[in-house]
Amino acid sequence: MAEYTVTPDSSHYFRLAEGLRAVGELTYPSWFTFDATLSLLDQPPFQIKPKGFWGTTIELEQHGNTLLHFTVGWNGNILLHAAFPQQPQQNFIFKQKGVFKNQYMLTDDQDRELLVIQPGFKWKNSTFDFTLFSTERFEALASKDILMLVAVHCANYYLTLMMSTTFIAAT
Asked: Which of 99, 103, 138, 156 is spaced 20 to 30 Å from 79 by Cα?
C-alpha cells in the first residue's frame, strides 16, 4: 500500500506527490469548472472536458484521442471507462465511502477497492487537500498516476456539487 498527497496551491491548482517525488498536477482554468488540465512529468498534458448538454459525461483526452470517459450514475457513483493505448479496456467506479460519506474510493468493476481518497479542508485558502491510499492491485496498474489525478478530479466534482448545494440552500 502506498500513500500519496495532493496539495492545493489554490482552488485551481493541485499537485500530486508520493513523499518528496512529484507525480503530476491537476489545473483548473477557474473556480467551479469541470474543465481541467492533467499533467504528468513524463507525458504531454491531458485535457478533461465535460461533454453533452448537461455536462454529465466528462472525457479525458490527449492529442484529440479520448482515453477515458466518466459519467455520473443514477445512484451518485461515477462510472469510469478507460481505453488507454496498449492496455486492456477497464471499468472503474468512484464512490463515497464511510459512515459519514467523508471519504471516497475507486474500485474496479468487481467492486474491489483500489484507492481511498481522504479530503481535508484548508481554512486558510478555502480549499481541500487530499491523502490517497492505494492497494497493491492499484499500484500494479500502468495508468495509476493518471487514475489518481482523475480520482482527485472526481472528488473535486463531488465537493463542488456539495458546496454549491449548500450555498443554494443557505440563500
From this structure: 99
